[in-house]
Amino acid sequence: MEETDVILLWGSNAREAHPIYFHHVLKAVHRGAKLYVIDPRRTPTAEWADGWLSLEVGHDVALANGVANVILEEGLQNDAFVRNATLGFESWRAHIKQYDLARVCALTGVDPELIRRMARDFAKAERAMICWTLGITEHHNAVDNVFSLINLALLTGHVGKWGSGLNPLRGQNNVQGGGDMGALPHKLPGFQDVEDASVRARFEQAWGRSVPPMKGWHLTQMFEAMGRGELTAVYVIGENPAQSEADSAHAIERLKGLECLVVQDIFLTKTAQLADVVFPATASFCEAEGTVTNSERRVQRVRRALTPPGEARDDIEIIAELSRRLGFDFGTPTAQQLWDECRTLSPMHAGMSYAHLEERGGIQWPCPDEAHPGTSFLHGRLWDADATKRGPLAPFQVTEDEPPVEALDAEFPLRLTTGRRLESYNTGVQSQGYASPVFRRETIDLSGADVARLGLRDGEAVRVVSRRGAVVAPVRVDPGLKAGLAFMTFHFADEVDTNLLTIDATDPKAGTAEYKAAAVRVEKLG
Amino acid sequence: MDLRAIETPPGEDERAAVDSVLGPAPAHEPPLSARVTDERRTQLLPTLLALQAQVGWVSERGLGYACRRLGVPPAEGFGVASFYGLLSLEQRPAAFAHVCDDLACKAAGAERLCAEVTTRLGEKSWARSPCLGLCEQAPAALVTVAGQRPLEQAFGHATTDKIAAALSATPVAAQTPHFGGTGPRRLLARVGVVDPSSLDDYRAHGGYAALREALVRGTEGVLQEITLAKLVGRGGAAFPTGRKWEAVARAPARPHYVVCNADESEPGTFKDRVLIEHDPFGLVEAMTIAGFATGAERGVIYLRGEYPLAFARLSHAIAVARKHGLLGADIMGRGFTFELEVRRGAGAYICGEETALFNSIEGYRGEPRNKPPFPVHSGLFGKPTAINNVETLVAVLDIVRDGAAAYGSVGTSGSPGTKLFCVSGKVEKPGVYELPFGARVDELIALAGGVPGGKKLRAVLLGGAAGHFIGPERLHVQLSFEHTRAAGLSLGSGVVMVFDETDELGPLLQRIAAFFRDESCGQCVPCRVGTVRQEELVARLVAQRPLGSVQTELTLLNELAQSMRDASICGLGQTASSAIESALALTPFGGAS
Amino acid sequence: MTRRTVQLTIDGKQASVPEDATLLDACTSLGIETPTLCWAENLTPVNVCRICVVEVEGARVLVPSCSRKVEAGMVVHTDSPRVRTSRKLVLELLGSSVDMSLSPIFLEYSKRYGADPARFGPKAPKAKAGERDAAVPGHHHAPDGTHAATVAQPVKRDNDLFLRDYEKCMLCMKCVQACGTDAQNTFAIAVSGRGFEARISTEHDTALPDSACVFCGNCIGVCPTGALMFNVEHDLRAAKKWDESKQTVTDTVCSYCGVGCTLSLRVQDNQIVRVTSPSDNSVTAGNLCVKGRFGWGFVKGDE
């Protein structure tokens, strides 16, 4: 990161959401790297940018395709890489021609010169990176958004090299680790396909139990299944969907309709309050042993520093006990024993013994054996001079601009987008436990122009209304917002349940909801 | 979050003051950018000075607005503003007096004047000031009247009446300083002769002949002549100018800068003021030659803030020179470009230290940098920079015009040419004297009319507060770099301050100790705390209340002096004890002998 | 790109180090322990404390080893009488003006160099709140020499997370650097004032919650003297309950985002009392954000 030359931060307010990652960005910036920030809001991240591209919410595909078009028009693509390492270039190229700058500017509202400048800097850089966060993925067309960014990296060859690449910044400390460990509907630990019989066979042999051979549901599908009455029992571990799901009123209704809801958490969350059974758990980062995986695929040890309070028990212990009572006793393994078992089943983790992790202060997968230092970047194979060693080539994906599901209209004229603030975290159950002097209570952030147009004043409480619900929050004038754009968080869900407003339109492949684009109006109270 | 701006909007006067430097704010102010660029930040001190001059103080709203316009973090802006003696962060009367109570003025009755000013004008309208550089007219005062058209007057022979008049914005007549000397008048050739506002008059007296000659000689020719003339810096450090210029000229990094150190603040020094006030075109021409010789297209003259007349005359000279094609693009039709600007200091002795001066220009606190790297490699904005004292630059004119041989026709073999001396204190005719190197101290004092009133000479402070006291038995010392060095002394900035038998050295030493404590930038431990301990120690010695014995105090002072000399970052701490140690050798305190 | 090496002599021994090494690096390579106070491996050297000075033959004055680059053929002495005197005086000057009692390394150096801060007389009484912040450059009350001036002043406690006890501030600049371009880039604090009245402050000495401060606490992480301290720790110390023999330090990983910052949790009586991160950690370089540093209030532990 620190040694790259151009950084595109796309839909990421890393200055607030990933502060320590942003330190590395700033090291690069101080070294002379150019930083472009693509975000509708002028965030504290954008403050540091050489170029801030303030696009209309939800038109990321158009912008990325526009950037690709500039690169192609000016002949700045990496022809050798495209030829050697990619598939589908010609048809994609033909498609990209539709995204001329005039059209892209009309869709995105971004200055064409700025697009051109970013495209040139990115394409000409020796090393360049694209990093993104939920500004890309919390859309109904999240996967297309990501594909569009990947296309840019393939076009310019900024992938599979030191100081280059594509980095999704994970919002939670073990999102990556959850995926690594198979907490995905179609994967077993180590990203091994559950529908692959030979994979299943290895797990079945180790576990002495059969593994269901079909894909499961992802979160959104689970809620849909609850709606259909197909899913009747849910076991929730460390998640607060009653407040974190888009269109939360709808989500709560579905949770209430379950026959059995079990919640395992360190807090009595809104979701836990709906549960039939609550298992008090330990805080994983300081009351339990184990590993997590960060955004750079680094597996790291967490350790127990505190004795947990009251009846709280370790997640492993709870699951083992539950399993025993359900009729399968696998004893009470330690975190290390479970990890060692995982290493025998997941080749990419095989070399990561606790001792090896300790020695290196964390290891980036894949790490096949204990002599291996881990892998700092992936996809290097695409550069191999020997075509047979390049493996499967990377395909260009044709993507089309699709506006947010919910269009603005006279009734709901403001675009509400959501995100995080520095001192808080998600639904606030953890972060409200300390006395940060920088806490603000929830606000509806608006541009000065809208506040004036609506006859409001800074700090005045207003009603924010969407097609799904309404909340009351004070107005805050944010000079970083354009007219027509509103911003809220869901950090203070107990006071202002922002997700009553958001829309649960979801991406068909990833299942992520469009938290970033709802249509609302702001009403004066009384 | 990040670079948070002070949100209170500025008042009209504050906005006007800041905008007078930065131009009007754009209609749609761009959002605060967290990335501060050097180019913007360098306007910080000029902006703060404009606030001080026009509003009368650096208010919170004014500073906040300045920081926002310049993209400077408010905490850092405050750090800079609170560094300078002439900037006030507290509201005070628009009309305000700074009364000098430094060495020469103290010897001329500054304490009496201060007492009288308090009685008649009240406590709030004035403050004490370190040396104002008007020692030949001691006691001195600087009076500022803030407003849209601020008025600043520095004057000598100050009385309460004069100060009161100046506070009510009445012009106080400027006095022509005394100047004299023996041998050829080179540095002072035009001082008191030409009209300082007239380019024609300057040319009629040989002005711009040197630049013409420089263009004929070419860069290499100029460098060679300066080196042959063995010219060394006149600011105190005596570094060979030819070597310095050559190093900059040959430095691969670009751009190059030339900087004139006109932050003349060494107590007892006023020669540069006299040169600039009376021959401003001489400095402009010399800077142009320096730019030509070192390949610099931009020059900055950093002038101490207490010199309003010098600032006005120099600014005028630069404007006139630019109008006549002697600055700017294609000077004298020779395809050579040179831009020159004046920056004012704001009351900080330490900014006379060359690297502190760069920091001050760049908009940072005037804290010296560690050396190496030296300015010839990494100076202003981190680029190769030739920085020279005013007198050094003016000496270049003669060398380039007449050649090194002619220049060396007077002076000593080790120190060719002439030198300016600032004679003040108890002499009949205090003033600036130009003498060939090698003259003796007693000859110089005699030239200045000797000690008045038939009194006996007690001591001479040679080289300024950072120099040494010598007693009557050492007045035969010859004034050249090699002779003073051999005698364990230094010429410093050419200060020769004379004290007679009625002057008590004790209070003078306390003033010197207080001066260094006040003027230490505060960066390094030996100087920041050492100057405090030194002042406390001197107070005990003068009051004859030693901790332990006088001998233990002297041992302590010796160790303190050694560590300040050895371990301080810059010359301030390194020389902060020299005058005091030399005086203690002359005058036993508390029975030590 | 290979770096050339440079040979030099330190205390009679030959050192061979990369050309961009500092004298401190060179000393370390020979196993010569050099005292440092303002230097830290994750910050740009500011060479202001001057405890690390060494004697280089041919140089007029001593040079700070932390920032001075090596040059071929240098002959260096690290324990000459001049070096010892300057180091001793630096320790005495700090010891006589600053409360260094929470810096074990300072106390150790003081013993090593025979520093006696009391030589400068009894310490002056503590300044009143705000007095030092109101100082004007170029003006101070003339001392009578009976007391040694100090920076003692009341603690500044303006928020619930950490406090600033500037009686313990030696102006090493680490907090300013950590708040600035070396890490956090927030620029909430800077040096203000001049000389002995130089001090770390926000603009106009405004309280931290009203400043640009984001409460990352990276300043606390680098403070060597305990001038910046968690309120929890300060209160335990004030109540005489701070007991390092009962404390453990456990490294784990922060749970607040996907960056994976290592947290070193210092725990006493099953309560977290301080959170830091190792300065050599590849993710954090010793830095954290407000959530990682302070956001553990939700973990109550078993009391």
Keywords:
A: alpha/beta, Dimethylsulfoxide Reductase, domain 2, Rossmann fold, Barwin-like endoglucanases, 5-stranded parallel sheet, 20 helices, B: about 600 residues, Arc Repressor Mutant, subunit A, Glutaredoxin, 5 domains
Task: Label the CATH architecture of the largest domain in chain C.
Answer: Single Sheet
End-to-end Cα distance of chain C, whole Å, is 57 Å
- The rough form of chain A would be described as globular
**Oligomer type:** heterotrimer
SS-based class of chain A: alpha/beta
Give the total of beta strands of chain C: 12
Percent strand of chain C equals 15-25%
Largest binding interface between chains: B-C, 71 and 61 residues
User: Radius of gyration of chain C from the CA trace?
Assistant: 21 Å
- CATH domain fold name of the largest domain in chain C: N-terminal domain of TfIIb
| Main sheet: strand order of chain A | 16-20-17-19-18-21
> What structural class results from the helix and strand content of chain C?
alpha+beta
CATH class of the largest domain in chain C: Mainly Beta
Rough shape of chain C? globular
Into which percent range does the helicity of residues of chain C fall?
A: 10-25%
The chain-level mean pLDDT of chain C equals 94
Level-2 CATH architecture of the largest domain in chain A: 3-Layer(aba) Sandwich
Low-confidence stretches of chain A: none
Calculate the mean pLDDT score of chain A and round it.
Answer: 88
How many helices of chain C? The count is 7
The main β sheet of chain A shows up as: 6 strands, mixed, barrel
Structural topology:
The complex is a heterotrimer of chains A (526), B (593) and C (303).
Chain A (H helix, E strand, L loop, with lengths): L5 E5 L3 H4 L1 H13 L2 E5 L12 E3 L6 H14 L5 H7 E2 L1 H8 L4 H8 L3 H13 L3 E5 L1 H4 L4 H15 L8 E4 L6 H6 L6 E2 L3 E2 L3 H11 L11 H10 L4 E5 L3 H4 L3 H9 L3 E6 L4 H4 L3 E4 L3 H4 L2 E4 L4 E5 L12 H11 L9 H11 L8 H7 L2 E2 L29 E2 L18 E5 L25 E3 L1 H6 L7 E6 L3 E8 L7 E4 L29 E7 L2
Parallel strand pairs in A: 1-2, 1-5, 2-3, 4-15, 5-6, 9-10, 10-11, 16-20, 17-19
Antiparallel strand pairs in A: 7-8, 12-13, 13-14, 16-21, 17-20, 18-19, 18-21
Chain B lengths: L11 H11 L15 H4 L2 H12 L4 H11 L3 H8 L13 E6 L2 H5 L2 H12 L4 E4 L11 E5 L5 E5 L4 H8 L11 E3 L17 H6 L4 H20 L12 H10 L5 E7 L8 H8 L1 H15 L1 E8 L4 H16 L15 E6 L9 H9 L22 E5 H13 L1 H4 L10 E8 L5 E6 L4 H7 L9 E6 L5 E3 L10 H6 L8 E6 L4 H15 L5 H18 L7 H18 L3 H5 L2 H9 L7
Parallel strand pairs in B: 1-2, 5-11, 6-7, 6-9, 7-8, 10-14
Antiparallel strand pairs in B: 1-3, 3-4, 10-11, 12-13, 12-14
Helix pairs in contact in B: 1-3, 1-4, 3-4, 4-5, 10-11, 10-13, 10-16, 12-13, 12-14, 13-14, 13-16, 20-21, 21-22
Chain C lengths: L4 E6 L2 E6 L4 H7 L23 E4 L6 E2 L10 E3 L3 H17 L6 H10 L48 E3 L9 H6 L10 E3 L6 E3 L16 H5 L5 E3 H8 L8 E7 L8 E7 L2 E6 L13 H5 L9
Parallel strand pairs in C: 1-5
Antiparallel strand pairs in C: 1-2, 3-4, 3-5, 6-9, 7-8, 10-11, 11-12
Helix pairs in contact in C: 2-3
